[in-house]
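Bench notes, afternoon.
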Amino acid sequence: MKTKNLKLKFMSAVGVALFLGVVIFASSCVESQKVAMKSGPQLWAENCQRCHNIPSPTAFSADQWETIGLHMQSRALLTEKEKNKIVSFLQSVNQ
């Protein structure tokens, strides 16, 4: 009887874990779609002002924005796609 209860508990735990995995995966896909729909200027305004005043896009050169983007990607927990959109926007203003 104990073995049957243990198997039932194990199968229940596996079922819950699978369900949570699907829910987390689905929510991350929805979030990715939201990010994909946002422009570089939107992402720049939303993310950069959370921690500090945002500098003018012309405050740094295109190369400097690339370096800043790499640094801020890890600091602000930006995805590669978000960082690329922000940096592309900032570099386009300087051309």
